Amino acid sequence: MGMAWQCTGLRWPDAQGPPVLGWRRGGVVRVSAQAYGTEFGFRAEGERRCVGARGNVCPVGAAVSGRSTGARCPECARLDRAHSVAADTIADDPRTYRVYLAWFGPGMVKVGITAEAREAARLREQGAVVFSWLGRGPLMACRRTEEVLRSALGVPDRIPYMRKRAVRGALPGAAERRAEVAELYGRAVALEGAGWPESLARLPFEAVDHAGLFGLDGEVEVAWAVTGLVAGGAVAGRLVAAAGPDLHLATADGAVVLDTRLMTGWELAAADARAGVGVPLTDIGGGGVQGGLF
Question: Which Pfam families match (predicted)?
Fold first, then answer.
């Protein structure tokens, strides 16, 4: 071991292009675009190790759980979060931020913030099917707006990935998706003057729909989700859709959603698309109970 490729995660660098998986082997770094309709497969080998934090390797190369999406030991996880905007520890950040409203499925709308320089990459990374900007300004003004919407309108700032995955197979039409975001936008701007920070500039409503980009504009079956990888376990099939960190695969064992964050920290070898799935799964399609295939 030691010279196998390690996955560094799924990214969405292009607003119109496919997602890419990052790979590292020794000092070599590369990416591979993930095109719908193509074969996808790998086998996890050895033991999963901590991926480190903020570009630094884990000093002890700690072993981590195959079910963790973070793939970090407690020490590296603390270091990573200490420098995160989400942790609210960077109050003097001079960059401009934006507040957004994001829709993931019927009744699943959240508020969030992202650095303006990142444009909409954060929305694609979360799997937002539709979003609109709400405002822009300093970090703390955006943070305050996020809090106002949470308290005044009951809008969450987080939606569990399992809920997002379960509804992707039966999304309503584009007009209905847009209308739900537009309704929340209207309620949000009605709060101007009632706690909305003066330094936050409102941005006009403009719904951006990612269903086509994600491959969700047709019928997509949702049945199983991978809950973790195991040594020697394979995940292989045909890529049919992707959203956020998730890849939707048509496999010999049915429709499977793979959270690519589970791939990080493992050494991975190629597997034939006919290999199917040999890792633990959970039912997210309402088809019954399955303890796992492995």
Answer: DUF2797
Cα separation, 186 vs 182, whole angstroms: 6
Q: Could you identify the residue written with the tokens 């088809």?
A: 287
pLDDT tens digit string along 177-224?
Answer: 999 999 999 999 999 877 789 999 999 999 999 999 999 988 889 899
Between helix 139-153 and helix 174-189 the angle, nearest 10°, is 100
By three-state DSSP, how is residue 114 classified?
strand
Smallest CA-to-CA distance from 245 within 268, 230, 262, 267 is with 262
45 contact partners, CB below 8 Å, separation of at least 6: 1, 4, 231, 232, 266, 267, 268, 269
Identify the CA nearest to 200 among candidates 139, 156, 121, 157. Answer: 139
Contact 260, 234 (CB under 8 A): no
Sign of CA dihedral 261, 262, 268, 274: negative
- Using the predicted structure, report yes or no on whether residue 114 has a pLDDT greater than 90: yes
Q: Tokens 């706690």 correspond to what residue?
A: 195
Phi-psi region of 9 (alpha: psi -120 to 50; beta: other; left: phi over 0): left
Match 């993931």 to its residue by tokens. Answer: 104
